[in-house]
Write a structure and sequence with these properties.
Catalyzes the transfer of a formyl group from 10-formyltetrahydrofolate to 5-phospho-ribosyl-glycinamide (GAR), producing 5-phospho-ribosyl-N-formylglycinamide (FGAR) and tetrahydrofolate. Helix content is 39%, strand content 24%. With 202 residues, the protein is an alpha/beta fold. The structure holds 5-O-phosphono-beta-D-ribofuranosylamine (GRF).
Length: 202
């Protein structure tokens, strides 16, 4: 299976996927990353892709006359690599109708909170501020909402009294990277069905 990964930042989830494919080999893992896309340049995530010898593309919202034109450009750039699965690994933009029309049902996101709690850009900060005793991460299919698509898997992390946002987020990311590698591999190798809000991996 062909994967395109979308990033906006440090790309440690991308790196976990790159390492998993390199370690197991594309056949055994079930997939290989064929390109990495971003909404901004100058980020470590793109540097990681370049170090792995992968093609990259950048679609910046401000380079387009409208959000719809950006969405169309992102769709085209992603489609050029003919992915079977698209993975948002810290991609910080909400895709539009065209992207979802093209990749809905095979577009996966990882979110650093236990959805449906704490969706959006500051999931870790919101869980901490709320006083949650457990936090975690969610890998889900992307639908037309924000972090609302069918949940594939979740991982739980305890919140410690001394945690600040970055300490908690780092602890979540340790679980998240393993969860994402496991889920993407299983989706790619076994195939899956989405039945309403249920995801069945064969
Ligand atoms: C991840 O925790 C992801 O869930 C969140 O931002 C973080 C990205 O980390 N949206 P990285 O870029 O993969 O290191």
């Amino acid at each position: 299976k062909r994967l395109v990964v979308l990033v906006s930042g440090s790309g440690t989830n991308l790196q976990a996927l790159l390492d998993a494919v390199a370690e197991a080999g594309p056949e055994a893992y079930g997939a290989e990353i064929v390109a990495v896309g971003a909404d901004r340049d100058g980020i470590e995530g793109l540097a990681r892709a370049e170090r792995a010898g992968l093609p990259t593309f950048v679609c910046k919202v401000k380079d387009y006359g409208s959000r719809e034109e950006w969405d169309a450009a992102l769709t085209r750039a992603t489609a050029a690599y003919e992915p079977d699965l698209v993975v948002s690994a810290g991609f910080m933009k909400i895709v539009g109708k065209e992207f979802l029309a093209r990749f809905g049902g095979r577009f996966v996101n990882t979110h650093p909170a236990l959805l449906p709690s704490f969706p959006g850009t500051h999931g870790v900060r919101d869980a901490l501020a709320y006083g949650a005793k457990v936090a975690g991460c969610t890998v889900h299919f992307v639908d037309d909402g924000v972090d609302t698509g069918p949940i594939i898997a979740q991982g739980v992390v305890e919140v410690r009294d001394e945690d600040d946002e970055s300490a908690l987020h780092e602890r979540i990311k340790e679980v998240e990277r393993r969860l994402l590698v496991d889920v993407v591999g299983r989706l790619a190798r076994n195939g899956y069905r989405i039945e309403g809000r249920k995801v069945v991996i064969q």
